[in-house]
Design brief:
- By secondary structure, the chain is mostly beta strands.
- The protein has one domain: Beta Barrel (Porin), CATH 2.40.160.40.
- The chain has one helix spanning about 185-195, and strands at about 5-20, 20-35, 40-50, 50-65, 70-80, 90-100, 105-110, 115-125, 125-130, 135-145, 155-170, 175-185, 200-210.
- Strands 1-2-3-4-5-6-7-8-10-11-12-13 form a twelve-stranded antiparallel barrel.
- The protein starts with 5 loop residues before the first strand and ends with a strand.
- One of its GO terms (molecular function) is copper ion binding.
Length: about 210
């Protein structure tokens, strides 16, 4: 029984983001297959804006529980930035799990063969008002050791994607939601956006659905 194979797929964000006259589509999902001790994870996220894909991030990871560290798994693998911009491939190592008070926490370090290093911190918390109504604050922070002009990424604290979503679980596996998001660029990344006439910070109304299987 310890070697029984399980699987799980979660489409956490499948949403439209409307800010003024512009509406973009966002997806963010993950899935795994394996036993209690060895799992293969796939993660994917990105934006679609006027048929152009940006912030495309696909990850393939090996996952294993961390001894004597309850509710956390170690993950190692590869990340590929695949979208309308130049492709980038990184090695990935991180942890994912539940911190005290059921706070979802996932810091990951990425390394490329040219000496570039990147970091990402994901965090979220589900505040349940009723058995079906859930408010979820969420944040993603990104850091880079060097500029990448071709992808318009600056070194240091590069950008954040944050949101507050109120969902109603019609059942445990299907939950439409509405909410608010804020995307911000900082440092060199903010300069790239300003030079291109883009907003450094964007607030949006969100409508979408959360699905898991």
């Amino acid at each position: 029984m310890d070697n029984r194979t399980f699987s799980h797929v979660l489409l956490d964000q499948f949403e439209g983001r409307s800010g003024g006259s512009n509406t973009r589509f966002r997806w963010d999902g993950e899935g795994w297959i394996g036993t209690d001790w060895n799992r293969l994870w796939i993660k994917s996220e990105g934006f679609v804006d006027h048929s152009s894909v940006s912030d495309g991030d696909q990850e393939l990871l090996y996952d294993r529980p961390i001894p004597r560290m309850k509710y956390f798994d170690a993950q190692v693998g590869v990340r590929a930035d695949l979208d309308s911009g130049p492709a980038r491939v990184w090695s990935a190592v991180g942890i994912e799990g539940l911190a005290p008070y059921s706070f979802e926490f996932a810091p990951t370090l990425y390394i490329r063969n040219d000496g570039r290093v990147a970091g990402r911190i994901n965090g979220a918390y589900s505040l349940r008002f009723t058995q079906r109504t859930v408010l979820e604050p969420q944040v993603e922070l990104n850091f880079y050791s060097k500029d990448d002009p071709e992808r318009e990424i600056g070194s240091g604290f590069s950008d954040l994607d944050s949101g507050l979503r109120l969902r109603y679980e019609i059942n445990r596996k299907f939950a439409p939601y509405v909410g608010y998001t804020y995307e911000g660029a900082f440092g060199g990344s903010a300069k790239y956006r300003s030079n291109n006439g883009e907003a450094v910070g964007t607030s949006s109304f969100v409508f979408g659905v959360r699905i898991w299987h």
